[in-house]
Amino acid sequence: MDRYRFPAYIFLGNNRYRERYGLDFEDFKVGQVFRHRPGVTISQQDNVEECVNTFNQAMIHFDEYYAEHTEFKRPLINTTLIVQRLMGMIWKTYYRRKRIVEWGSIDMLAPVFGGDTLYAESEVLFVGANLKDSESGLIEILLSGSNQKQQKTCEIRCTMLLYKREHLPFSAKNY
Fold first, then answer.
1. What is the pLDDT of residue 1?
2. N or C terminus: which one in the chain shows less Cβ crowding within 10 Å?
3. Burial of 139 (0-12, 13-18, 19+ CB in 10 A)
4. Where does the source fall among the domains of life (predicted)?
């Protein structure tokens, strides 16, 4: 049986395959831009639960009366929730990530409110060797979040290690 017959699957053995997500380190090039779909609509309930779970007591996130007296006029979505959702939206592309090694910056550019839909786009800024081990390489991305009005709401710079093609720990050769 041809082990490369189904490129979206890892051949494990006779009639056994595992779904394969993401790109190998070798597939990334500087300048590539990925639009990650679908978008995610964030509710005020999601926001309140995030604030409760993280003990965030900033009234701007959940007190509508308080928020009416601010420049935003509505409760703001918690920044940690926005970052979590955007990072979660890119998982299929960067599935072979070994780990995040650096958060370069997290910039909030516009407010996000309950009911807004976030969309993620990432651009590859750097691709290079990992001098500490040969099984992975370094990649730096700029992750941009936009709302349903195509207004940029957030930019995140991060550097991560991605497994090289032959070193993925859950590939067929390791089973």
1. 43
2. N
3. buried
4. Bacteria
- The answer for residues whose C-beta is within 8 angstroms of residue 107's C-beta and 6 or more apart is 154, 155, 156
How many Cβ atoms are within 10 Å of 98's Cβ, its own excluded? 19
What is the pTM assigned to this prediction? 0.85
In this structure, how many other beta carbons lie within 10 angstroms of the beta carbon of residue 125?
16
* pLDDT computed for residue 171 by the predictor: 57
- Nearest to residue 157, comparing CAs of 122, 117, 119, 118? 122
Closest CA to 35 of 153, 137, 135, 146: 146
The domains located in the chain, with CATH, are: 23-174 (3.10.129.10)
Predicted pLDDT at 14: 82
Q: Which two tokens stand for residue 61?
A: 């996130």
Strand pairing category for 33-41 and 97-108:
unpaired
What is the DSSP code (8-state) at residue 173?
A: G
The ranges of the chain with pLDDT < 50 are 1, 174-175
